[in-house]
Amino acid sequence: MKHDTPSPEQAASELAEIRDRQQRAAAKAARKPAWLWWSIAAGTILAGVAGDLWPPLGSAPGLVLAGLAVLLVLGSRSKRIATAMGYRAVPDRQSMPRKAVGGKYVLLIAFLALCLLIAVGSNAVHVPFTHTIWSVVIAAVVVLVLRPVSRSLLNTVPDERKGGRGDGGSQ
Amino acid sequence: MRGKAAEVTAAVNSALDQTLLDPTRLHIASLLAGTRWAEFGFVRTELGLSDSALSKQLTNLQKLGYVELDKGYVGKRPRTWVNLSESGRTALAAHVAALQDIAATAAAAGAQHQPGAQHQPGKQQ
Q1: Which helix or strand (DSSP H or E) is residue B46 part of?
Q2: Domains of chain B by start residue, with CATH
Q3: Closest by CA position to B38, among listed A71, A11, A22
Q4: How far apart are CA B31 and CA A19, in angstroms?
């Protein structure tokens, strides 16, 4: 079962293939199941409606929802919980394509900034059903912006090769 | 010069992992390197292998200590999870380094030859 030593061209192409496969697997594994996005959106609206219908609740429903979201994210790192949630693998964070990781942080910061803006705005402007209105806005952003952008980030091709050591520079 | 090249080749050959020179095993290892525990079905789908072919390869890799298998249930459904062990990750990293050496050696040799070696068609050397 002895295999031949690969030629330089084969070595370069195998290197590219190894990295591509590794990054694609990490990206696919990190894809969130569709139900999760819809649940976050539905939960946000429910929290908003609850906040308006019963003012003493204040921001408690929102905090509970945020806590649940954190639990879900942390839980998805355990293989059994991840499988039960609909993930097919636990991604190796270090293998994620750089573009996807960078994009994810930008997206997260933009989303947190939006939430902050909404919190400040709803305190300054008093209109009926403020919580409901803003929760619908956040839910719409989650489903219509975060979901497709996140998916497209994870569909990005693996990192471009650079002319470093052995990165296919034999051509 | 030839002797030195032969020495380098021999060193690189010994650094290459014989197990990972098999394309299917290399594919499995590189796929698993992107995950921490993956479902058997995920690996099968991504590699386009049959259940039995993948199972056979995984058993062999497990015997070598390159992968870890875990069987369990989610609800009532039986599941098998696969993970590239630490020794598997180390072996893959060493294999990748050896491949990089092969590619880099060839690139360096190509660069050395280029300046004076302009090929002129039809001209006798």
Answers
A1: helix B40-47
A2: 17-100 (1.10.10.10)
A3: A22
A4: 9
Q: For chain A, what is the domain count? A: 1
| CA distance, residue B123 to nearest chain A CA (Å) | 25
Q: Cβ separation of B99 and A166 shorter than 8 Å? A: yes
Q: Is residue A166 part of a domain?
A: no
pTM: 0.78
Contact of B67 with A58, CB cutoff 8 Å: no
Of B12, B41, B106, the CB nearest to A170: B106
**What is the span of the domain harbouring residue A66?**
18-154
ipTM here: 0.77
Looking at chain B, the number of H-run helices and the number of E-run strands are 5, 3
Contact residues on chain A for B74, CB-CB shorter than 8 A? 80, 83-84
Q: Using one digit for the tens of pLDDT, what is the confidence trace for A81-109?
A: 888 888 999 999 888 888 888 888 998 89
What one-character-per-residue DSSP string does A23-68 give? HHHHHHHHPPPHHHHHHHHHHHHHHHHHHHHSGGGTTHHHHHHHHH
Per-residue tens of pLDDT for chain B, all 125 residues: 455 556 666 666 777 899 999 999 999 999 999 999 999 999 999 999 999 999 999 999 999 999 999 999 888 889 999 999 999 999 999 999 999 988 887 677 666 665 544 444 444 43
The per-residue DSSP string of A72-97 comes to HHHHTTSHHHHHHHT-SEEE-GGGS-
